[in-house]
Amino acid sequence: MKRETFKTIILTILIAISLVFTWNIWMFQPVMQDQADAGTQVVETKKISSDEPRSLIDVVKPREMFIHSNGEHLKVDQKELFQNFWNDVSLWDVKEISDVSDQYSEQKFKNFFYGNGGQGKTLDLVFNDPIPIDIFQALFKWPNKSIEYNSFDRMIVPFSQQDKANKKVYLVSYSKETVLELTIESANYRNLMDSIAAAQNEMPRYDLYTFSANSKRDFLLPRKQEQLESKMFFIETIKTSKFKDALFTDPSLVGEESNLNRTVYTDGTSRLEANQKDHRIQYQHRNINSSTVFQTGDLIKRSVKYFNDTGSFTDDYQYFGINSNQQLSFNMFMDGLPIVNSTKHPFGMTSLEVQWANDDILNYKRPNYILGNKASQSEQVKLMNGTELKDLIVKQTKYDDLEKIEQIFPAYQAASTASDQDQAMFVWLEPVWCMKYNGKTVILSHDLLTEGSENHGVE
Hints:
- Keywords: Membrane, Transmembrane, Transmembrane helix.
- Pfam families: YycH.
- This protein has a 15-stranded mixed sheet that branches. A nine-stranded antiparallel sheet has the order 3-7-6-5-4-1-2-8-9.
- The termini are far apart.
- By secondary structure, it is an alpha+beta fold.
- About 20% of the residues lie in helices and about 35% in strands.
C-alpha cells in the first residue's frame, strides 16, 4: 500500500471518530448523580391538597350585600348575583382617587350611606374586617398612585349612574367616617346593577337597630325570622404525613412521636403537632420571635401565597380578620356564611390562622380535615329576627358594653355529633347569629341569659 493511501485512510478514520464524538457531545443528557453522593439534596415540594390555587379575589370577599333606598333595606341573598358582581370587580379600571371625607357631616354621612335624603339607591358591600387600601389596589385595575394607608370595611356603589361613562364607587370606613371616592370604568356595570335591581322584590327586608340612645353604630337585622338549613357532613381526615411533607423544609430530617390523641413531628427547629381531639394541626418555628410589625395588606398577600404554595386551601376559606398580635384568620365558609366552632358542643378548628416573623411562618394552625360540600343530612332552622336579637343582646349581661359590638351576622356553628369527641367523624353545621365584640366572635344564643353560663367567645 502506498504511503499516501495509508495516510488518507488514517485521516478518514480520525475524522469519522471526531464526528462521532461531536455528535455525542451535542446530544448528551447527563444522568444526575445520586444526591447523597453529590453532598446536596433536592427535596421534592409536596402539597396538602392538589386543588387549584386561589386568587386574592377568591379569598377577600364581602360577607354581605345590601340595597339601601330611602329608608328601605334589602339583603342580596341570591348567590349568583352576589358572585357575578364580585367577580366583575377585578375588571374595574380605576381612573381617579379622591378622599372626600370632609364633604360629609355625621348626618350627611349616614344619609349618603343608607341612600336617604334624596341621595339615591345604593349597593352596600359589607366585609368581615377592615380591608387595607393595598388589597383593594390589588383587586382592581388601580394605578400606582401614592395615597394615605387606610382600611375600609364597606364599599358603596350607587345605582343612578348606569348611563355615565365613568362611575363613582366609594370605599368607606364606617367607624372612622372616612370616604374614598374612586372613578372607574366598567363594561359590565349596567348589566350587573340592573340584574340586582330586578331581583329586589324577592329579597328579605332588613331594618336598622341601635342598642343605646347615644350609639353611633347601626346594625342591619332582618325584619322577619329567616329560615336556613342545618346540615350534617362526614368529614375527610387529612393524613398527618401530608402536613409533614408540605410544611417542613426537609421532611427526611423529621422525627416523630405519638400517643393516643397527639402526634408530634420535629426537625429540631420547627414543630408540627396534630391534635385529633380538637381536629387541629399546629406548625411552629421555635427559634424565631415576632419582632417586626407588618402592614396588614402585606400579611394578607403573603399568607395567601403561602397557603397556595402548601396546598392549604382544602375548603372555601376567606379572610376573616387580624388580631392585636398580627395573627390572621381565614375562616371556612359554607353557602356564603362563615363557620365558627360551637361553644356548647365544640367540634374543632374551622379556620386557617397564621402569624409571621420576618419572612418565616412563626405559627400556623388549621383544621386536620376537609369538609367538602355534600351534606349527608339536612333540616330547616329558623333564626331570630331583628327585634328578638335586640331583646337578647340588651338583656344578657356577659357582654354588657354594647358600644364594643362591631358587627352582627349569621354564621354556621360546627357542632360535634359524638359523645366522644375523639370519634367525631360527622359535624353538624347549625345556623346561628354571631357578633364581633371587641374583636372576638361570640355566638348569640339564649344560653347567654343563663346565670353562670360558660364563655361563649369563639377561640
